[in-house]
Design goal:
The protein is mainly alpha-helical. Bound molecules: protoporphyrin IX containing FE. The site of protoporphyrin IX containing FE (HEM) has 26 residues, from helix 3, helix 5, helix 6 and helix 9. Protoporphyrin IX containing FE binds next to helix 3, helix 5, helix 6 and helix 9.
Length: 409
């Protein structure tokens, strides 16, 4: 008889452990039916989990060569980029992964918001999700400094100055965050530890809890919270199909496309590395990553002490959404138009602030004219025609210096 390695392994394990209950639990879970309204939008969470796994993998590879000190960090990133075989690709995949993860987290959040997936009994799943969003943004913030080039250094100087404006606790918070009064070697050490130890541990623990809660409650139905949640038989009767293979195949296809997109971006558009950080030379046109641009721009219109508290407030408001702001029993989007209109308006304001932040302090060509956008994002026509390089959307001064944005591992 032909040797079957799977059966041999199973027999070996069965002779030592009681496997039957584990296998039954797995089978029951994987074949649980998903509601009939589940579509491709419900693959975003799995895609996010897959991209996070790739991100942890590329991050560990980068750690092999990265050196977290002011004297060596920049050279070690140069070494990864130019000397280590495929180092540039790993760095590029890690950089693009960070952007895609933020995009997917926001899209996944929007999907849950539209379908009312945060409502009873899934408030805790939602709360853990909001914490995961904060962790993802924390990764972006701390990772930005690690290449230790001019953009990374001065971007962090600007970003860590704002919290100091809060009376009493502000200066202390800043000092604790950067390990002194200025961004320097101790800041890099702190950001590195947070980026490679604290945040990954918190991320893995909370993603585990998030997934456990999702398996426990199942996907939310479209019926109201005042009705009992449909059981497996009811979901099947309403046209729901088993998770395996139906939705699992959809998840796999979406993950395949996302990893393809990540690798294409990483191959075609590797990130730039500027000049080494110099605390004595402030380069012009410093801006944070795109997802911090709304907060950055807001600080220009309102007093710093107010503006700096808005982003955490937005996270708290999101957290409180199911328990304070949307307590109706309806889940169906058509019966929650008011909530969706308010959420869309808030998203539009955030995007508009981000756009103003992107345009501010740049020169752009629009409709055959060239405009100077001032720091508040207001356009001022400068001359007829299109100025050379004027439509790239990068800070004008930064272009002159040949610097790029981003570059965070
Ligand atoms: C690390 C980031 C995250 C991962 C890996 C993740 C993963 C997932 C997965 C796999 C699902 C089930 C499939 C789906 O609905 O797409 C899901 C559902 C859910 N997620 Fe996330 N998620 C993350 C972040 C978030 C965020 C930022 C929020 C909201 C603030 C959130 C809230 C929820 C809720 C409430 C559900 C249940 C929805 C329902 O049953 O309809 N998640 N998540």
């Amino acid at each position: 008889m032909k040797w079957n390695p799977t059966k041999a392994l199973r027999d070996w394990l069965e002779a030592r452990f009681e496997l039957e209950p584990v296998v039954r639990l797995l089978r029951e879970n994987l074949t649980k039916p998903v509601p009939a309204h589940v579509n491709w939008l419900f693959t975003l969470g799995s895609v996010l989990a897959a991209l996070l796994a790739v991100q942890l993998f590329t991050g560990v590879l980068l750690m092999v060569h990265y050196k977290p000190s002011g004297q060596e960090a920049f050279q070690s990133v140069q070494h990864i980029t130019y000397d280590v075989p495929l180092g540039w690709l790993i760095r590029s995949a890690h950089n693009w992964g960070s952007h895609l993860i933020v995009v997917l987290a926001l899209l996944h959040l929007a999907r849950v918001l539209v379908y009312g997936g945060y409502k009873k009994p899934r408030e805790l799943t939602w709360g853990v999700g909001v914490a995961l969003l904060a962790i993802i943004l924390g990764f972006g913030f701390t990772g930005y400094l690690l290449p230790w080039d001019q953009v990374a250094y001065w971007g962090t100087v600007v970003a860590t100055e704002a919290p100091a404006s809060i009376p009493v606790v502000g200066p202390l918070t800043r000092e604790f965050m950067i390990g002194g009064t200025e961004v320097a070697d101790p800041t890099l050490g702190r950001f590195y530890v947070v980026h490679v130890i604290l945040l990954p541990v918190a991320l893995i623990a909370l993603v585990g809890l998030h997934l456990l809660l999702i398996r426990y409650h199942g996907t939310s139905p479209l019926s109201g919270t005042d009705q009992p949640e449909p059981g497996a038989d009811e979901i099947r009767r309403q046209g729901g199909k088993p998770f395996l293979p139906h939705h699992a195949l959809r998840d796999s296809a979406a993950i395949y496309v996302a990893i393809g997109a990540l690798m294409s971006l990483a191959l075609l558009l590797p990130p730039h590395l500027g000049d080494m950080a110099d605390p004595l030379i402030t380069p012009p046109g410093i801006k944070p990553e795109w997802y911090f641009l709304p907060a950055y721009q807001l600080l220009k219109y309102v007093p710093e002490v107010v503006g700096v508290q808005v982003p955490p407030l937005v996270l708290v408001l999101l957290l409180l959404l199911p328990i304070l702001f949307d307590r109706s029993s309806h889940r169906h989007p058509r019966r929650r138009l008011r909530v969706l209109v308010v959420a869309t308006a808030a998203a539009a304001v955030i995007c508009f602030l981000g756009l103003l932040g992107h345009l501010s302090d740049t020169q752009q060509a629009l409709l055959g004219k060239t405009y100077d956008f001032d720091v508040l994002g207001r356009p001022h026509a400068v001359k007829e025609g299109v100025a050379e390089g004027g439509s790239s959307g990068r800070p004008q001064a930064a272009q002159e210096q040949g610097m790029g944005e981003g570059g965070a591992p």
